[in-house]
Structures are given as structure tokens and as C-alpha cells.
Amino acid sequence: MARNDTITILRGEGAPPDLSYGELAYDSANNILYIGNPAGVPIAVSIMRNVFIQSSPQTPGNLTLTDAVNWAAQYAFLSSVKIKTASTNFDLYLCETSAFDTALISTRQLVSGGTGDMDITVDREYNPDAAAVYLKYVDNSGANTATFYVVGQMRRH
């Protein structure tokens, strides 16, 4: 027997004060979906969205890659970094802050002595407070520019 069920989603701005168990609500001001738990408390549902940032050709140094529309970095997960360069010897660091401190324990060296174009798998959570991706590009063979492509997911909790 065919069923014709309808799912209703409450809509509004801001978090709902309460929801019945299994009831859905959408906060249009913050783009958050809520579901009522057994106690009637609204719980934010994780929403993931793929994000992509492409840089213009960059000279060696500290790079701040931003995309105000697609990269809010709320609980961001970095999947990969692709680099296109003619360099024959470069290092690449992923920094958690705009201080670009490679001595910090949270800084991760993605490449040491890299040559030419590379696809680098990162697969790690990124600073949830950052509004950008901070890379440090060191060209040990000169001053070759590089173009970066950062792929990840923006996750809301």
C-alpha cells in the first residue's frame, strides 16, 4: 500500500526554544537545522558542505587563503592541498594561526623538499576559530610562485 507522508519543518530565525521528540526546525538566520531530542530539547544537526579555495600565483612566504562566502571554517575539515609550482625544492607548512609560527606543536609540515606540482592529502580537523587557511610556502630553490587549491568541508555542530 502506498503512503503519502508529509514532513513538516518549522522555520524561523534563531534557535527554537523547544521541540517535540523528532520534530525538525530550521534557523534561517544561521543556516542551522535542529531536531528535538527525547527530552524536547533542540539539538543542532551537523551540516557538512564541501568548500574550495583557489589562490592566485603566490610568491614564497606567509599565505592567508580566504573565501568569505564559502569558508567560515566552523569546525573545518581539510581534505587536501594541491600546489602548482615550478619549484624544484620547497617546503609547505599548515599553520593554525596568522602568526605562521612553524615551531608551534599545532603547525604541520605538509611537504619537505617538494618538487613541482603536488597533491597533498591532509585529512585533519582545522582550527575552528580561523576564518582563513594559513600556509607558509618556503621555496628553497629560488623565488618560484605557486598556486594553491585547498579542498575541505565546513562542518556545523
Written account of the structure:
The protein has 157 residues and is mainly β. The protein folds into two domains: 37 residues, no CATH class; 109 residues, Jelly Rolls (Sandwich). It contains no helices and twelve strands. It is elongated, with a radius of gyration of 21 Å. The mean pLDDT is 84.
Q: Can you give me a brief rundown of this structure?
A:
It is built from no helices and 12 strands. It is mostly beta strands and 157 residues long.
Q: Which tags fit this structure?
A:
mainly beta; Jelly Rolls; 4-stranded antiparallel sheet; 12 strands
The number of helices is 0
Inertia-based shape: elongated
- Strand percentage lies at over 45%
Structural class: mainly beta
Q: Superfamily at the CATH H level of the largest domain?
A: Nucleoplasmin core domain
Q: How many domains is the backbone divided into? A: 2
Give, in spatial order, the strands making up the sheet with the most strands.
1-2-3-4
Task: State the order of secondary-structure elements, H for helix, E for strand.
Answer: EEEEEEEEEEEE
Distance between the termini: 38 Å
Q: What is the CATH C level class of the largest domain, in words?
A: Mainly Beta
Give the averaged pLDDT, no decimals: 84
pLDDT < 50 runs, ≥5 residues: none
Beta strands, count: 12
Share in helix? under 10%
CATH architectural arrangement of the largest domain: Sandwich
For the report, how would you describe the main beta sheet?
A: 4 strands, mixed
Question: What fold name stands as the CATH topology of the largest domain?
Answer: Jelly Rolls
